[in-house]
Design a protein that fits this description.
heterotrimer, A alpha/beta (430), B mainly alpha (275), C mainly alpha (271), A: D-Maltodextrin-Binding Protein, domain 2, D-Maltodextrin-Binding Protein, domain 2, 2 domains, three-stranded antiparallel sheet, 12 strands, globular, C: 271 residues, two-stranded antiparallel ribbon, 2 strands
Chain lengths: 430, 275, 271
């Protein structure tokens, strides 16, 4: 019939156009190169469009832009702040297009190992070498390692999100307990703090990223690790077994009721309203817990390293897209912002630490959030490891996080869950 | 008359569909540069043997059946009541429609906190009568999400069924009443059959929409506990956008299409025959 | 006699409970929008000193502009869908045009998860050089609103008796006039419902809105989702934003459904 013929013609046309579009539209196909310029002239004129995550650290950076413009008056900085998932989606879209939307980005650590080999990021070694007084070694080791892919540096640390043990000192003192220093103590202390309406530990067993991020600290506390020396999975060890059993025991005895899907939000509110005594969370949450308008318990909170001294860390790094339209100007901003002097300003304002020298700087210790807070952070950042190393990071994290969730939910035995998780690591990243 | 439809739908629907289909035949990954490599049906083979995909399909099917059944029954009851309502008609109707207009992610987040054991009003009230229920825990999560769906989308059913009730001719029912038939009889033998075309459209559309549930899962459980609430859309989102394997994710989407479309066709042929 | 009043009472009670179930979360949201972050942590707090910080924050963040953009996109989408959809539905219903292939092929885009279609839309937007406008978003919304509206209306057109149109033709109307003046009014309730539903689908979409719109012109659901930050959900602000999204549409639907959904049997042959 006439209609059918029109339809077939239409679809044929559509099909051809689509294939043509597919051919011309994907990717940029260029090798990532860098101009290598380290010291950017102060009269450089450009617009740098930055994509950042909508976190308080971003607000602090935005507050410093005026100072940057005092030194580089002709560089316009435009910051777009988005939530995490929105960021990733927009980043990928920008990488994939021939006309980039962003000239400077921040990259989360699992992404580094996927973006760099894909040629999305500009190598920064030359720039770093050519920037006077940059002192790259001053950044904490784990953070530098994260920005390093196959021996090439693709990022400069922006802020860390290492975890620590955040606890209500008053509640611990009242119960006559001290900060736990081993996994067993963590369990017993949390259980001791659970009575009446109060629970010992606000846990975050939400399937996927959150549960893995929390549990890995327990794994480290038990003396285990995620990877073996050769990069294969190490979750089939007795330490992992002990860690998961302890985690499940804590969930059943010392965590708030009905909290199987809890993530950061719920746990934070639980601790800040005094309904839980402690939580395992990012170190820079301490100021938020202690801020005067946070509630009745503001000021009672303290930060400590995880029992055993080793903790999980994540890190955001500044990176310059290889299709950036203003790469030199972008580097001007990055090198200025992460320089020692400006870093002190940033951390004093509440930003998360990345440089060792900053945490020992007098101004910071005097005007910041308390010397013992910074001492704890130094201890935390000196012995921290990310969840994932190598390509396919997000997938591995989700796979392990699913198995852990099954174990805590009771639908899989600890042994089965760990075996499956380990197999996932080897399959995805092996 | 069909030409404007062809033009608009061709561009709006056909092009991306065709492109997505093309991608499903490649090993396209979002972290690659340059055009994708053609791999033929490899993606399809891989997806068809992917346990995770089938588990997600099963989970989603359960969710759709529970949610849409409840929505249809409740929707019908509410629509019937609204039709006979005498007081404050317009206000009631618009207020009842309100849940539909909240973007699903906001609904998900609102209920996440409303159902939270320590911060939420609902467990607080339940606690008052001594009940402690883990809404988003093992064994309960999928049902809770389905109930959130019911809260948000029953108004849609109400809207459509009300329109349907207002559209059907009143004469047969008047005649039956004059003949002395009871309300239930009228409903079963006259109203309901006349509503079938509209009921089937409503159920179909609502089911297709429910198949794509994502925001509720994302806001509350992220697919957990375990994989209890891992729905198809969440699964393909993770594969295609989180793990960057868009070619593979496209093949999953088309497998879903291949399953759902014939089901719909069979269902409608049956309904046509029943008329 | 008494059974009638019993039914009436039951109906009333049922409707009131339905209203309560709908309004309970909405009331909670309204209360939350006036609470400070601290007050939000207390589920039992009903009487308190209301605060306007959430509201001022939300307005400063440009929520009204975002709402305006969403309304614009949804309006255009629904307009196109109503016009094209009713024509198409009429043709498909009356002449069974295109057969099953068209009828069900239209639904293909409804079934596919947006996660899979969003990057093709984006790529095509770049190819057609419209990526800095709201056009790709409108097309993406059309992909799921147009089929829905068409499908709705097929069902409604199916229940319009053929005799109506035939009578109009006999009376001297052209096919088009018969459609416009006789058949179409019969499906006004369905059209009204379709318009409201299509608008809702477009108004609520976050997925396409996130990737396909230029960053500076976020649409409302994306703005609302933005309150789900790394440091937790900003409940108070999000609640205020939700109300900004819901209240105007409820008011608008009040007027639309009064006109259209309640049905007008005037115009054509009285049955």
């Amino acid at each position: 019939m006439l209609v059918k013929r029109n339809l077939t013609k239409a679809f044929a046309l559509i099909g051809t156009t689509a294939l043509l579009a597919a051919g011309c539209a994907t990717g940029t196909g260029t090798e990532a190169e860098s101009s290598g310029v380290g010291e950017v002239p102060t009269d450089t004129s450009a617009t740098v469009r930055i994509l950042m995550e909508a976190v308080p650290d971003t607000d602090i950076v935005q507050g410093l832009i005026a100072d940057f413009n005092a030194q580089y008056p002709n560089i316009t900085i435009e910051v777009e702040a988005l939530a995490f998932d929105q960021m990733r989606d927009k980043l990928i879209a920008s990488f994939q297009s021939s006309e980039p939307t962003y000239d400077l980005i921040v990259a989360d650590n699992p992404w580094m190992d996927d973006f760099a080999p894909a040629g999305f990021l500009e190598p920064l070694d030359d720039r770093i070498a050519n920037t006077p007084d940059f002192d790259h070694e001053d950044f904490f080791g784990p953070l530098r390692e994260i920005a390093d892919v196959d021996g090439v540096t693709y990022g400069v640390p922006f802020y860390n999100y290492a975890l620590g043990y955040l606890y209500n000192e008053a509640l611990l003192a009242d119960a006559g307990l001290s900060v736990p220093t081993s996994l067993e103590e963590l369990v017993s202390t949390s259980q001791a703090l659970t009575s009446g309406d109060q629970t010992g530990l606000a846990m975050q067993p939400q399937r996927g990223y959150k549960i893995f991020e929390e549990w890995a600290n327990f794994l480290f506390a038990a003396g285990g690790s995620i990877y073996n020396e050769d990069g294969s999975g190490a979750l089939d060890s007795p330490e992992a077994q002990a860690a998961l059993e302890a985690y499940i025991e804590l969930y059943n005895t010392a965590a708030p009721e009905n909290s199987l899907n809890w993530a950061f939000d719920e746990a934070f509110r639980s601790v800040s309203t005094g309904q839980s005594a402690a939580m395992v969370s990012y170190n820079w949450n301490l100021p938020a817990l202690n801020s005067p308008d946070a509630g009745d318990f503001a000021g009672d909170f303290k930060l400590a390293t995880m029992p055993g001294g080793k903790q999980v860390l994540g890190s955001w790094s500044w990176a310059i897209p290889s299709n950036s339209a203003a790469s030199d100007a972008a580097w001007a901003f990055v090198s200025w912002l992460t320089s020692k002097e400006v870093d002190v300003q940033r951390v004093t304002a509440g930003g998360a630490a990345v440089r060792e020298s900053t945490l020992q700087d007098e101004t910071v210790l005097a005007e910041g959030f308390g010397a013992d807070y910074y001492a704890a952070i130094i201890a935390i950042l000196s012995n921290a490891a990310p969840l994932s190393e190598g390509a396919g990071g997000e997938e591995m994290i989700q796979a392990v996080g699913t198995e852990l969730s099954e174990a805590v939910a009771g639908t899989k035995s600890v042994a089965d869950a760990l075996a499956a998780a380990n197999a996932a690591i080897n399959d995805i990243q092996g | 008359m069909l030409l404007p439809l062809l033009a608009v739908s061709g561009v709006a629907v056909g092009l991306p569909l065709a492109y997505a289909f093309y991608l499903s035949l490649t090993n396209f990954s979002l972290t690659q540069q340059g055009p994708a490599g053609f791999v033929g049906v490899d993606n399809y083979q891989g997806s068809l043997t992917n346990e995770g995909l089938w588990s997600a399909i099963g989970t989603t099917a359960t969710y759709v059946v529970i949610a849409v059944t409840l929505e249809t029954i409740l929707g019908l009851l509410i629509a019937l009541s609204l039709q006979k309502q005498k007081w404050a008609r317009d206000i009631t109707r618009s207020m009842l429609l309100a849940p539909m207009f909240i973007t699903p992610i906001a609904v998900g987040l609102t209920f996440r906190f409303l159902l939270n054991d320590q911060l939420g009003a609902i467990p607080y009230l339940l606690d008052g009568v001594g009940i402690s229920y883990d809404f988003l825990g093992t064994g309960n999560a999928l049902l809770t999400l389905a109930l959130i769906d019911v809260w948000q989308w029953t108004p849609f059913m109400v809207l459509l069924l009300l329109a349907g009730l207002e559209s059907i001719p009143k004469q047969p029912m008047e005649a039956a009443r004059v003949d002395g038939a009871g309300a239930l009889y009228i409903f079963r033998r006259i109203t309901l059959p006349l509503l079938v075309p509209i009921l089937s459209v409503a159920i179909l559309l609502r089911s297709l929409d429910a198949l794509k549930v994502f925001e509720y899962v994302y806001a509350t459980t992220r697919g957990g506990p375990g994989t209890e609430t891992e729905t198809i859309q969440y699964f393909t989102y993770q594969t295609g956008i989180q793990f960057f394997r868009l070619g593979e994710a496209s093949s999953m989407a088309f497998i879903l299409l291949a399953i759902v479309l014939p089901l719909i066709i069979i269902l409608f042929r049956r309904l046509d025959r029943a008329k | 006699m008494s059974s009638r009043t019993l039914m009436s009472a039951l109906r009333g009670a049922f409707l009131i409970s339905a209203l309560a179930a709908v309004l309970f979360p909405l009331t909670w949201v309204t209360l939350a929008s006036f609470k400070t972050p601290q007050q939000l942590n207390d589920p039992s707090l009903i009487v308190f000193q209301p605060s306007l910080i959430n509201w001022s924050y939300v307005f400063e963040a440009g929520i009204l502009q975002a709402a305006g953009r969403s309304a614009f996109v949804a309006g255009i989408t629904v307009l196109i869908s109503a016009i094209v959809g009713s024509a198409a539905a009429y043709v498909i219903s009356t002449y069974k045009a295109g057969g099953s292939a068209t009828r069900f092929g239209i639904l293909a885009a409804q079934v596919l998860p947006p996660a899979v279609l969003v990057f093709p839309f984006l790529t095509l937007a770049y190819v057609l050089r419209v990526n800095d406008t709201l056009i790709p978003l409108i097309f993406a919304h059309l992909s799921f609103v147009l089929p829905v509206v068409t499908w709705f209306l097929i069902g409604f057109f199916d229940s319009v008796p053929r005799s109506l149109e035939e009578q109009a033709r006999v009376d001297g109307f052209t096919r088009f006039k018969a459609f416009l003046l006789v058949v179409l009014p019969q499906v006004y309730p369905g059209l009204g419902a379709a318009v409201i539903f299509g608008f809702t689908l477009s108004w609520n979409d976050m997925f396409y809105g996130l990737i396909l719109t230029p960053s500076k012109s976020a649409i409302l659901p994306v703005a609302i989702a933005g309150f789900n930050t790394f440091r937790g959900v900003e409940l108070g602000s999000m609640s205020a934003a939700i109300l900004v999204a819901v209240v105007p549409v409820v008011i608008a639907s009040f007027f639309i459904q009064k006109r259209l959904v309640q049905g007008i049997s005037g115009g054509a042959v009285k049955y």
